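Hi Prof. W.,

I finally got the GNAT family N-acetyltransferase prediction working! I wasn't sure whether to trim anything, so I left the full sequence exactly as given:
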Amino acid sequence: MSQYKIFETERLILKPVSEEDAKFILELFNTPKWIAYIGDRNVKTIGDAKNYIREKMLPQLHSLGYSNYILTQKEDSSKIGTCGLYDREGLDGIDIGFAFLPQYEKKGVAYESANKLKHIGFSEIGLTRINAITRKDNMSSQKLLKKLGMIPEGTTNLPNDEVEWLLFKIEKEQFIAQESQ
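And this is what came out:
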């Protein structure tokens, strides 16, 4: 049994990533939208995926107790995407991010999972701010971030990355105010 929490929503199970998820990570990281909007992580084999999980995802999970979550549908146990809270180099604070296999987009699961992690971040983890970054041309992501109550805050650049990202944020006080409405 994992020492890390597993979360549930109405339709999903959010389980911390493990090396057992390498086949799924390989598939997800090579979808056209992942490459276009997140970037090519040069994960081309199951071995590459295991290394990426081990070197990029698990260290944060071990140090902070949260990181990237594999999203599984309750109805059929299909792995459909990821959502996570990330301590991303170059950003002040924690960043929320999400990605889905193409066949599971536009079904409300991105909002369902990200909203759950937003609540966990503020209510259980004790975050005071959550950031999000997205490409300027990723209108679906921007729409979702606004639906989550996040506010555009300009642009940012990450270390060793030439992309200028749109930066969104939500403060805990804004979250509390939204929840009381």
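The radius of gyration is 15 Å. Does that look reasonable to you?

Thanks,
D.
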